[in-house]
Amino acid sequence: xxxxxxxAEKYGVPRVAFVNKMDRQGADFFRVYNDIRNKLKANxxxxxxxxxxEENFRGVVDLITMKAIFWYDDxxxxxxxxxxxxxEDMMEQALEWRTKLVESAAEHDDELLERYFEHPDSITxxxxxxxxxxxxxxxxxxxxxxxxxxxxxxxxxxxDAVCAYLPSPVDIEAVVGTVPGYK
Length: 183
Fold this sequence. Notes:
By secondary structure, this protein is α/β, with parallel strands linked by helices. It has helices at 2-11, 29-39, 91-106, 110-118, 125-138, 155-165; strands at 17-19, 44-46, 48-51, 59-62, 67-70, 82-85, 142-146.
């Protein structure tokens, strides 16, 4: 992972981080967050936080919409999910991480930063999406998500993030290739 990360840094490749296997023993989303910050010297910005971990992994809190997403049925491999209010016992933690998300986004957009200081609740999910996309493409932030790929939990949201935040071919410069031995 570190080798691939260094190559992505070298070539300026925008990234989205996905913490997989949240349903397995030893899963710790926040430890991975700290590892990305400290070992890879990157700026991860969680877009979701897990609801439970290991055998108790039940879903995620979407920090942009402040809604909880639960996968109650393992038989359909994550294709059916339920969106509910954030559980009361997680609200404080969710608000803390949402504040970090909005602060990170605001650091990369002067207009959003000004509004964050004046009235942080006025920032809409659409505005967050726009700034996250711009900051991801420029390399300022690494959107971070989690789930369980084997059980297809969180994969829909990951694919949505790829479409929403990573550059399309028109967003990046053309690649110039060389033919070895040709002058």
